[in-house]
């Protein structure tokens, strides 16, 4: 299931996104992950957080939301994850249009494939995940935003619904479950809207007044009926085990789109190079190198031979998806297309010579074909 975590903080998120600084971790962000901005602008968020820090006396200045799709959906594309971001904003900030929010989101596609759990000391797979940061400042009114208050059963119901918006989950049986879960969220939003029947542009947010008001008291204790509905819905879901599933300012959603365009351009320009890499570079060599350089969990992959092309491929035993050399580096190791080609070339020292020889042969064949056409 897609997992969403929401925390509140005062400062520091920009440095964390850029540098990856974390207690017990020495790698820089660029060693750990490929960053792909998909929503908003980091410079706008940074400026807004700076303004709040200097001019507001709030306990926390922003919300930090992490969204982690299940391994079954680890290959979700940026546009799908962006839709997930928009649905999350529409859920938790349903009182506002998105233009009023200073929000920024980026995907972290793991280059470093595994990490040691600090509690269990087990080696675990690192998964693609999204960081969504929202300033508490309402850009239109200069007041504090009123996020949908946390309630466990509602949060879990939203995660159920969000998980089933992925195309791979488009099954009628689970769509029914998802719609029932969505209704729990909508009922809670209706209550929240009724508690805020005031002018959001004028009246400052006083969370303590809301928490101690009679309208909130029924939600202090778990709602037995909603909990009962959620447990029934959750029991209908399929198993969720892993086996089944400043320097900051240049990062914004447009930058992420440029990265994608650059990959597409290289993809087409280097088509012949990619084809030769798929033929020449052994998948066993790729897997071994990925273990050493990126901490790949080798036990999840087996080498198989493509029936028609006779090229070596890797099969992920968790998903049964197969990958040839270029796709493995691009989709699993999360390299950009230029990085993919450069890394695979390094695994085959004689590649450039082979590519030159192939170009000569292809040129001679083209000349022969042209001569035959002229003679005919």
Task: List the main descriptive attributes of the protein structure presented here.
single chain; alpha+beta; three-stranded antiparallel sheet
Summarize the structure.
Helices cover 47% and strands 15% of the residues.
**Percentage of helical residues?**
40-55%
Number of helices: 14
Order of helices and strands: EHHEHEHEEEEHHHHHHHEEEHHH
Describe the main β-sheet briefly. Answer: 5 strands, antiparallel
Q: Give the distance, in angstroms, between the N- and C-terminal Cα atoms.
A: 64 Å
* Count of distinct strands: 10
Low-confidence stretches: 236-245
Structural class: alpha+beta
Q: What is the molecular shape?
A: elongated
Percentage of residues in strands: 5-15%
Strand order of the largest sheet: 1-3-7-4-2
Average pLDDT confidence is 80
Radius of gyration: 25 Å
Q: Please state the oligomeric state of the protein chains shown.
A: single chain
């Amino acid at each position: 299931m897609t997992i969403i975590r929401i925390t509140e903080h005062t400062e520091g998120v920009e440095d964390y996104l850029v540098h990856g600084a974390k207690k017990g971790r020495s790698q820089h962000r660029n060693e750990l992950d490929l960053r792909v901005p998909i929503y908003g602008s980091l410079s706008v968020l940074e400026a807004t957080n700076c303004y709040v820090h200097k001019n507001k006396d709030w306990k926390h200045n922003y919300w930090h939301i992490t969204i982690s799709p299940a391994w079954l959906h680890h290959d979700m594309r940026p546009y799908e994850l962006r839709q997930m971001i928009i649905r999350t904003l529409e859920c938790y900030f349903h009182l506002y249009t998105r233009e009023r929010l200073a929000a920024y989101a980026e995907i972290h596609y793991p280059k470093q494939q595994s990490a040691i759990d600090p509690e269990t000391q087990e080696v675990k797979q690192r998964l693609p995940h999204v960081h969504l940061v929202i300033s508490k400042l309402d850009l239109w009114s200069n007041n504090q935003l009123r996020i949908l208050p946390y309630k466990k059963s509602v949060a879990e119901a939203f995660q159920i619904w969000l998980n089933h918006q992925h195309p791979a989950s488009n099954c009628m049986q689970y769509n029914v479950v998802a719609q029932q879960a969505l209704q729990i969220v909508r009922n809670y939003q209706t209550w929240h809207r009724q508690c805020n029947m005031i002018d959001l542009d004028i009246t400052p947010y006083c969370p303590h007044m809301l928490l101690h008001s009679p309208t909130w008291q029924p939600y202090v204790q778990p709602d037995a009926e909603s909990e009962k509905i959620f447990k029934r819905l959750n029991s209908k879901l399929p198993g969720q085990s892993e086996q089944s599933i400043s320097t900051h300012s240049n990062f914004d959603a447009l930058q992420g789109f440029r990265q994608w365009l650059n990959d597409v351009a290289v993809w087409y320009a280097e088509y012949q190079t990619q084809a030769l890499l798929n033929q020449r570079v052994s998948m066993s060599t790729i897997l071994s190198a990925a273990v050493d350089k990126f901490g790949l969990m080798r036990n999840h992959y087996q080498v198989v031979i493509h029936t028609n092309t006779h090229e070596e491929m890797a099969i992920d035993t968790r998903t049964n998806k197969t990958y040839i050399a270029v796709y493995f580096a691009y989709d699993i190791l999360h390299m950009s297309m230029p990085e993919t080609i450069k890394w695979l070339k390094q695994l085959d020292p004689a590649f450039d010579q082979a590519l030159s020889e192939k170009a000569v042969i292809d040129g001679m064949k083209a000349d022969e074909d042209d001569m035959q056409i002229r003679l005919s």
